[in-house]
From TrEMBL:
Residues 429-490 form the TGS domain. Residues 84-181 form the HD domain. Residues 646-720 form the ACT domain. This is Bifunctional (P)ppGpp synthetase/guanosine-3',5'-bis(Diphosphate) 3'-pyrophosphohydrolase. Residues 378-398, 520-577 are annotated as: Disordered. The lineage of its organism: Bacteria, Bacillati, Actinomycetota, Actinomycetes, Kitasatosporales.
Length: 725
């Protein structure tokens, strides 16, 4: 594949002026052979781009860096046959276009000299100072990572240490990778694929994290072309076919311009084409593409307040799609991104997505941390102490990066570190949840109450037993949504520790590392006790968000003591022997008039199972002596505490199934203690509910009502505890 075939540029619809067209500028700068005669011209493009962002910049240091880089790389060729200097020049131009400051550009020009030429770090330090030297050294270390075993945990740790102290190292690295990806066509296909995969797995997530949208989108398209050539070609053809004189977005953009002008709001309305990967994603999501799906409207204004004025006009004069509205100005994303997002209905029902932001927000959206300047320009020592959850405290050292560095210190095992890091990078968005003390926590999407507990309390979260989410008691496994208020509940008993099950529910490396560390240090206590399976059973699984909240429900953490109702009176069970506490087994949840069998467990309590329970059979098989057990009354009706039962509903998946099932349960006056919904397989879903009924006599009626729910084809008593993963 040639470099041109992998080129997502040659844009068909790139009409949005503020969009930084890195490719075009890259080509302009490098047109023709670079020789000594062309020297002023070659660095001239960089200087021009730099001056556009920083009118007062001192360009002499750039010239000096160029002269050293050019002379030391002289005679070296890239695989394409071009002089080597074209590479650092192109990388520097990318950064200059994004608005990087002079020190970054200087280091970028020199970024390959120490590795590939006679130039030494000491020389760089002598001629360009400590900062440039530090950046060049960092990039040199990163360079070694790339084309070796990129995913090697130990190497990656080193890479983070190198970059962690200064985000500008990563900026240079990303621009370096972009230029290498653009010119990948000269490599063997296997090598192209390998480099593209590393780019996809490591560099693109980093670009996303650093908020460098311009680099991220181009890298995505380059990777797409290499790893999915057919789909890339299909997408290219779709975009070409959709490009015509009567673009529905043009019509809507025209209407929006008039509307805003009439309202006296000064704004620039542009059409911003989606990049190839974005078009492909929309197509995958919606099946068919409409003319308005190939781009989005971008409205640029001067002041923050103008953004809301524009929004008001759009929502008044057009039909808005309210579900598409998102306010990333009031609650910026973790990577500094700010914008209002909405969508309006245009002619013939076509929906156009609209982004509203100030010029400054636009620059940050495109260039992220690259545009934020020199971290040493401000006095950091005098900066006020900021909350660790405040991602925007220090833009050059964002919170997630600080966390990465903390993890790499606390995770002594490289594999754990690598796994958690990769998981963290794979998450494409974060949510913000509110603490009850007024603070906020930034968590990855899919994070649970376990994550929130560790984020808020650190290792003290080992004793977590549950949480309140929006005021309601919830299990630790409950997945949090953006905007939830969460209050983790800790046990007073500091001796208890996390359950291995918690690892199924964590998304944050900090929680994963803390739990893994505790379990490693306490190998005996981590073993689940087969008799207390109730505690590690369905209660630790996800609960349906729309399940009715039983008022008496405990907050069952996985390590919370099993919900024993000790003594024959409350369980309604009589066992042989002296007054040992009795608990009903969670695996088979016996209810009258089931035949019973008991086993003495640790601490002298007796756990009572249904006689046909397979867990009971196993215990008999391994030689455990059964203890006689029977229901207290002849009728076996447990009058005081009601009865607890686990039911499995097998259904065909459909919308609202969960809501209808929980409604049927609530109508039968049963309380949901816990619930598990397994991922659908071939259209079938299995829901497991542990329910508290006021009376065992109500069980047949409840099971009938659940079977009557549309789509449900079987409801049965559980023979086994719900899977805990
Ligand atoms: Mn390089």
């Amino acid at each position: 594949m040639s470099a041109e075939a992998a080129d997502p540029g040659a844009p068909l619809r790139r009409r949005s002026r503020p969009r930084i067209d890195l490719r075009r500028l890259g080509r302009v700068a490098l047109r023709g052979p670079v020789s000594r005669d062309r020297l002023p011209d070659a660095i001239g493009h960089v200087a021009e781009a730099h001056r556009a962002h920083h009118p007062d910049a001192d360009l002499t240091i750039l010239h000096r860096a160029y002269v050293l880089a050019e002379s030391s790389h002289r005679g070296q060729m890239r695989k394409s046959g071009e002089p080597y200097i074209t590479h650092p020049l192109a990388v520097t131009l990318i950064l200059a276009e994004l608005g990087a400051e002079t020190t970054t550009l200087t280091a970028s020009l020199l970024h390959d000299t120490v590795e590939d030429t006679e130039v030494t770090l000491d020389q760089v330090k002598e001629q360009f100072g400590d900062e440039v030297c530090y950046l060049v050294d960092g990039v040199t270390k990163l360079e070694k990572v790339d084309y070796g075993a990129a995913a090697e945990p130990e190497t990656f740790r080193k890479m983070l240490v190198a970059t962690g102290n200064d985000v500008r190292v990563m900026s240079i690295k990303l621009a370096d990778r972009l230029h290498n990806m653009r010119t990948l066509g000269v490599m063997r296909p296997e090598k192209q694929a390998r480099i593209a995969k590393v780019t996809r797995d490591v560099l693109i997530p980093l670009a996303e994290r650093l908020g460098v949208q311009a680099l991220k989108t181009e890298l995505e398209d380059l990777v797409f072309a290499i790893l999915h050539p057919e789909e890339y070609e299909e997408t290219r053809a779709l975009i070409a076919a959709a490009t015509g004189p009567d673009d529905p977005l043009e019509t809507i953009a025209g209407n929006v311009t008039h509307t805003l002008r009439d309202a006296g709001i000064s704004a620039e309305v542009l059409i911003r084409p989606r990049h190839f990967v974005s078009v492909h994603r929309v197509r995958r999501k919606r099946g068919e593409l409409r003319g308005t799906d190939f781009g989005r409207l971008l409205v640029l204004v001067a002041q923050d307040a103008d953004c809301y004025a524009v929004l008001g006009e759009l929502h008044t004069c057009f039909t808005p799609v309210i579900s598409e509205f998102k306010d990333f100005i009031a609650a910026p994303k973790f990577n500094l991104y700010q914008s209002l997002h909405t969508a309006v209905v245009g002619p013939e029902g076509a929906v156009a997505e609209v982004l509203i932001r100030t010029h400054r927000m636009h620059k940050v959206a495109e260039a992220g941390v690259v545009a934020l300047g020199n971290p040493y320009a401000q006095d950091h020592a005098s900066a006020p102490q900021t909350e660790p959850s405040d991602e925007r405290a220090d833009p050059t050292r964002p919170g997630w990066l600080s966390r990465l560095l903390d993890w790499q210190e606390s995770a002594t095992d490289p594999d754990t570190f690598w796994t958690t890091l990769r998981d963290d990078l794979a998450q494409d968005r974060e949510i913000t949840v509110f603490r009850t003390d007024g603070g906020t926590l930034g968590l990855p999407a899919g994070a649970s109450c376990v994550d929130a507990a560790y984020a808020q309390y650190g290792d003290r979260a080992h004793t977590a037993i549950g949480a309140r989410v929006n005021g309601r008691l919830a299990t630790l496994s409950t997945v949090l949504s953006d905007g939830d208020t969460v209050q983790p509940l800790l046990a007073q008993d500091t001796a208890s520790g996390p359950s291995p099950d918690w690892l199924d529910h964590v998304r944050t490396p900090a929680a994963r590392i803390a739990i893994t560390g505790w379990l490693t240090d306490h190998p005996d206590e981590a073993k689940p006790d087969p008799e207390t399976v109730e505690a590690a059973g369905p209660g630790t699984q996800g609960e349906p968000a729309d399940a009715p909240a039983p008022s008496e429900r405990e907050a069952p953490g996985a390590t919370a003591p099993p919900r024993t109702r000790s003594g024959p009176r409350t369980t309604g069970v009589v066992v042989e022997g002296p007054g040992a506490p009795v608990r009903l087994a969670g695996c088979c949840t016996p209810v009258p008039p089931d035949e019973l069998t008991g086993f003495v467990v640790r601490g002298g309590a007796v756990t009572v199972h249904r006689r046909e329970c397979s867990a009971a059979a196993e215990m008999r098989d391994i030689g455990r002596a059964p203890v006689g057990a029977r229901w207290a009354d002849a009728g076996g009706r447990e009058s005081e505490a009601g009865c607890r039962v686990t039911l499995v509903a097998e259904s065909f998946g459909r919308p609202r199934l969960l809501a209808d099932l929980t409604e049927a349960i609530a109508t039968a006056e049963a309380a949901i203690v816990s619930a598990t919904v397994e991922p659908p397989s071939e259209q079938r879903v299995r829901h497991t509910y542990t329910l508290q009924l006021p009376d065992a006599a109500g069980l047949p009626g409840l099971m009938r009502a659940m079977r009557d729910v549309a789509g449900v084809y079987d409801v049965s008593r559980a023979q086994h505890p719900a899977p805990t993963g």
